[in-house]
Amino acid sequence: MSISKRDLESVWHPYTQMKDADLAVTIVKGNGASLYDENGNKYIDAISSWWVNTHGHAHPYIAQKVYEQFLKIEHVIFAGFTHEPAVVLAERLLKILPGNLSKIFYSDNGSTAVEVALKMALQYHDNLNTGKNKIIAFEDAYHGDTFGAMSASARNVFTNAFQSKLFDVCFIPTPLSGKEEQALCALEDILQSNQAAAFIFEPLVLGASGMLMYEEKVLDLMIQMCSQYQCITIADEVFTGFGRTGKMFATEYCNHKADVVCLSKGLTGGAMPLGVTACKQFIYDAFLSDDKRKTFFHGHSFTANPLACSAANASLDLFEKENTFEKIKIISQLNIAFAQNISTHSKVKEVRVIGTILAVEINTGDKSDYLNEIKHFLFPYFLKHGIIVRPLGNIVYIVPPYCITEEELNYIYQIIKNCLEEIK
Fold it and tell me: Where do the domains of the chain lie, and which CATH numbers do they carry?
């Protein structure tokens, strides 16, 4: 029996209706921007395997650094103990993160990085007895699939089954074009109640909600407003971090910086799971007390895993060694040119682009939605042409590894064009 058939017998896949799911494609190896299946077919990984792979698959430098660390220590409890890869990574991140952040808290993935941030913010106010306990978030937000992260996310197909178990959040309009003033007014109304503990946001790009994009000017104002009301700002840079928007971090576009930043996905170059929650000193200080009950009671078995920290350090090395931002610049320019080229196509409702992120919203006559039926045409169409995408309903997006070639990108663009012509 093939791996794919054995998989169907024993594995439950994420975000997949298993009743009518096709056999999963068995990937056996990767190289650069490409993946290869068991039959030798080659696919361009146009979405960086769920946005995590930054430098390309099976990168020899990252592999070597993880191997070297494995020969020293693979894991050690991080309560009462430490190790060099975690300390070095924390020092390096604090130097490059925007906003004078001072402490790094390690976890396992993006959802847990968000959970940590929300708990930090809420306990900060509890430790100081401020009485503030409300979380503010965008109506279209997605912050992960754990319960705190879901609570701060849009009420939609991802969260519907759990709504009665989620804590209340003050949702404000996402400041998309034409809604900026409405969003700002809604934020100010909540802040004036003096109940807001934190405002969490995906800076500039809301990924899972359809690669929705908004301007840095309105975000800058929002961060400034929160600061005036002692409301902690949390930048969920799990997706946008590490060059995706053209800068190392999306909040670099803003003059005012967040108090807390959440990282994962590209943190290790896609090699291993790792989450980071970075915070400013004033938050950390609120947990320093003779009262042991004010301790931050949070942790994970694999907190600060040395192998993952080594992979993250290697990934940061590659941003310098491989002139990565020159590659990012080229991808960004090609995306802009292609976006301009297809923006007037009759089947294109809207095309959005920032940095290495390109999203094409297809006009199907129906509401743009994650469950839009056209995705059942789109995924196999691109796969048949040797490209891996994962449409968000009627939205086709590309988020490629930075090692992708101009030739590979132009091929993806052409297949997108061809696909548009075949949609009836």
Answer: 3-55+323-422 (3.90.1150.10), 64-320 (3.40.640.10)
Residue appearing with tokens 């301009």: 340
One-character DSSP codes across 221-262: HHHHHHHHTTPEEEEE-TTTTTTTTSSSSGGGGSSS--SEEE
List residues bridging with 44 in a β-sheet.
34, 387
Q: Which residues, 6+ apart, have CB-to-CB distance to 114 below 8 Å?
A: 143, 144, 146, 148, 149, 152, 200, 234, 236, 238, 262
Express each pLDDT in 371-422 by its tens digit.
999 999 999 999 999 999 999 999 999 999 999 999 999 999 999 999 999 9
Residue 129's φ and ψ, nearest 5 degrees, are 60, 45
**Cβ contact 387:414 at 8 Å:** no
| pLDDT tens digits, one per residue of 61-104 | 999 999 999 999 999 999 999 999 999 999 999 999 999 999 99
Q: Quote the pTM value.
A: 0.97
Residues 187, 33: Cα–Cα separation, whole Å: 41
Sign of torsion, CA 206 207 211 217?
positive
For residues 417 and 422, give the distance between their C-alpha atoms in angstroms, rounded to a whole number. Answer: 9
CA–CA–CA angle 104, 219, 360 (5° rounding): 100
